[in-house]
Amino acid sequence: MSTIAFIGLGNMGLGMATNLAKAGHAVRALDLSKDAIEKAVAAGCMEAKGAKDAVSTADVVVTMLPAGKHVRLVYAGDDGVFNYAKPGTLFIDCSTIDVASARDVISQAEARGFEMIDAPVSGGVGGAAAGTLTFMCGGTADAYARAKLVLDVMGKNIFHAGDAGNGQAAKICNNMLLGIHMIGTCEAFNLANKLGLDAQTFYDISSTASGQNWSMTSYCPAPGPVESAPSNRNYEAGFAAAMMLKDLRLAQEAATSARAAIPLGAQAEAIYALMEAAGKEGLDFSGVMKLINGSL
Ligand code: NAD
């Protein structure tokens, strides 16, 4: 069993750290929020008093932070992890951040002789608590092989997407596609409704025809056809529109620097930004249906 420093015990990190502690690892928990630390300690982790205390005895450091600037600060800041980690410590950043920050922090780690991977997740808070997350990893084969032993405790599907930053690339490309087909699915159900087709009838036809897609069959944005979908609970957040918007902004940023044309990704970002402007970004991302049908 290893000593693991876990930094960032929010909605996602708490469940992930809890699973590591349950598996028998010594988990040293660090967060800016006292409340987050208290919950982690109640779940079997040990409180760390600052970065040095968290990482100086750790074999592995896992981070689950909001954005690129937090990841840069936590690893490479004046009081950062790089200053205190012992030689051979493995770093795993599970946050969803911009590809450029991920590549830069990993190259700084490697320049100091450490191994590090980016390993953003999908599966949400439920998947974090249940230990069923999907991890998309970028980094060297050696770093990935070491990290997989830890990731297996927190997830069900673990992928090596290639070099540093490729985990983030896979995550934002997937979520850009998800945002686009969710909006398209909303448009189709709304038009069907206006043309006099009820949601169940359209679902029965389209879910077995060429319009079929995940947003329709697993997460239908029209209430009715898919029992477990947030549309049947007034679009209460499973995956908030705010999180989708974050990922679409990251996709736009990456597309600009890679000079890739993403006209529909850009449009999806603009549409989710309208949900934010209306103060409805806390709804589930399928709640974009309400924007499309005029009921937001
Ligand atoms: P969160 O805001 O609930 O948690 C982030 C935690 O990091 C907070 O507890 C915060 O106090 C802590 N933190 C921030 N700066 C810190 C610092 N300098 N030192 C120590 N702790 C610090 O966010 P979350 O929902 O847990 O998401 C975390 C990451 O996972 C994000 O990058 C998000 O995009 C990604 N993600 C979230 C979900 C989801 O459904 N929530 C799904 C997939 C991926």
Write up this protein.
The protein has 296 residues and is α/β, with parallel strands linked by helices. The chain folds into two domains: 162 residues, Rossmann fold; 124 residues, N-(1-d-carboxylethyl)-l-norvaline Dehydrogenase, domain 2 (Orthogonal Bundle), CATH 1.10.1040.10. It is 51% helix and 12% strand. It is built from 14 helices and nine strands. A six-stranded parallel beta sheet has the order 3-2-1-4-5-6, sandwiched between helices. A three-stranded mixed beta sheet has the order 7-8-9. Strand 1, helix 1 and strand 2 form a beta-alpha-beta unit. The longest helix is centred in the middle third of the chain and has 29 residues. The protein binds nicotinamide-adenine-dinucleotide. Nicotinamide-adenine-dinucleotide binds next to helix 1, helix 4, strand 7, helix 7 and helix 12.
Number of E-state strands: 9
How many whole angstroms does the radius of gyration measure?
20 Å
Q: Which stretches of 5+ consecutive residues score pLDDT under 50?
A: none
Question: What overall form do the CA principal axes indicate?
Answer: elongated
Approximate strand percentage: 5-15%
Tell me the CATH topology of the largest domain: Rossmann fold
Q: Which labels suit this protein?
A:
single chain, 296 residues, alpha/beta, Rossmann fold, N-(1-d-carboxylethyl)-l-norvaline Dehydrogenase, domain 2, 6-stranded parallel β-sheet, 3-stranded mixed β-sheet, 14 helices, elongated, binds nicotinamide-adenine-dinucleotide
